[in-house]
């Protein structure tokens, strides 16, 4: 029963998908991070469905791309975007570690958060537009899988990387996580995700996976150096950056 409750908690906390209300205990959070990537799988399915529904309905490519960008925010509630903005504010403060951690907890939006978000979505739109307009079916499927892959590596980072502080939502989940079993769940999903992507296009899949893990390495270095570890906001930053970089990689391959 705790496994089912962990699934419900994962979708309740990290998406806007309606879930039943359950009486929860600490033990029910043990597998949350193992189920977290499934939100990305559903998001990718909606994105893929929209791209082709829009084509059938003769929706202009620009409109299809704009809706594609909005869909993940609608499904997730934008919790990862909030983390991205907070992290950008903290990184651009150029303060010490404690000041940066304090900025992450601050509910106010800074100028750099807005600037970086605008830049992010302009770049994401540019990459996604190329994919929507020029990519074949197999590459579009791989782009849909990037939402799944980004959450798998985010889950692995959350469970295995050092935390920056002993409080916050991420710490609440990871402190009670059944690490060995959750790591097995995440690795199995990683293998499944990469296998499905390789069935679509081996070269594109390899490039996308390499890009994803390069972003993960950068993220670990940045998080440890700037914040002393990872937090929930930084996890949102990882999601956004990895999805942007993977989509950009697919766009480049499409143009070659």
From TrEMBL:
Xref: Pfam families: CobS
Protein localization: Cell membrane
UniProt pathway annotation: Cofactor biosynthesis; adenosylcobalamin biosynthesis; adenosylcobalamin from cob(II)yrinate a,c-diamide: step 7/7
Enzyme Commission number: 2.7.8.26
Swiss-Prot/TrEMBL cofactor(s): Mg(2+)
Keywords annotated in UniProt: Cell membrane, Cobalamin biosynthesis, Magnesium, Membrane, Plasmid, Transferase, Transmembrane, Transmembrane helix
GO biological process: cobalamin biosynthetic process
Catalysis: reaction(s): alpha-ribazole 5'-phosphate + adenosylcob(III)inamide-GDP = adenosylcob(III)alamin 5'-phosphate + GMP + H(+); alpha-ribazole + adenosylcob(III)inamide-GDP = adenosylcob(III)alamin + GMP + H(+)
Annotated Gene Ontology cellular component terms: plasma membrane
Tree of life domain: Bacteria
Enzyme class: transferase
Transferase found in the keyword field: yes
GO molecular function: adenosylcobinamide-GDP ribazoletransferase activity; cobalamin 5'-phosphate synthase activity
Function: Joins adenosylcobinamide-GDP and alpha-ribazole to generate adenosylcobalamin (Ado-cobalamin). Also synthesizes adenosylcobalamin 5'-phosphate from adenosylcobinamide-GDP and alpha-ribazole 5'-phosphate.
Family: Belongs to the CobS family.
Protein name per its UniProtKB record: Adenosylcobinamide-GDP ribazoletransferase
Organism: Lachnospira eligens (strain ATCC 27750 / DSM 3376 / VPI C15-48 / C15-B4)
Record lineage: Bacteria, Bacillati, Bacillota, Clostridia, Lachnospirales
């Amino acid at each position: 029963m705790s496994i089912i409750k962990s699934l419900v908690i994962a979708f309740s906390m990290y998406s806007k998908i309606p879930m039943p209300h359950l009486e929860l205990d600490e033990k029910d959070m043990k597998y949350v991070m193992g189920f977290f990537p499934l939100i990305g799988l559903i998001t990718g399915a909606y994105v893929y469905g929209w791209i082709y529904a829009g084509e059938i309905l003769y929706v202009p490519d620009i409109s299809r791309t704009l809706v594609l960008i909005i869909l993940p925010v609608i499904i997730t509630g934008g919790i990862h975007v909030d983390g991205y903005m907070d992290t950008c504010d903290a990184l651009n403060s150029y303060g010490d570690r404690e000041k940066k951690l304090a900025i992450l907890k601050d509910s106010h939006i800074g100028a750099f958060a807005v600037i970086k978000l605008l830049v992010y979505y302009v770049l994401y739109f540019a990459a996604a537009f190329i994919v929507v307009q020029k990519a074949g079916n197999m590459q579009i499927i791989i782009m849909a899988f990037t939402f799944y892959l980004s959450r798998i590596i985010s889950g692995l980072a959350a469970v295995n990387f050092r935390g920056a502080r002993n409080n916050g939502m991420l710490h609440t989940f990871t402190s009670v996580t059944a690490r060995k079993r959750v790591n097995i769940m995440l690795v199995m999903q990683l293998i499944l995700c990469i296998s499905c992507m390789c069935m679509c296009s081996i070269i594109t899949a390899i490039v996308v996976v390499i890009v994803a893990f390069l972003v993960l390495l950068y993220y670990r270095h940045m998080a440890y150096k700037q914040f002393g570890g990872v937090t929930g906001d930084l996890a949102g930053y990882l999601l956004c950056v990895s999805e942007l970089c993977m989509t950009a990689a697919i766009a480049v391959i499409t143009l070659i």
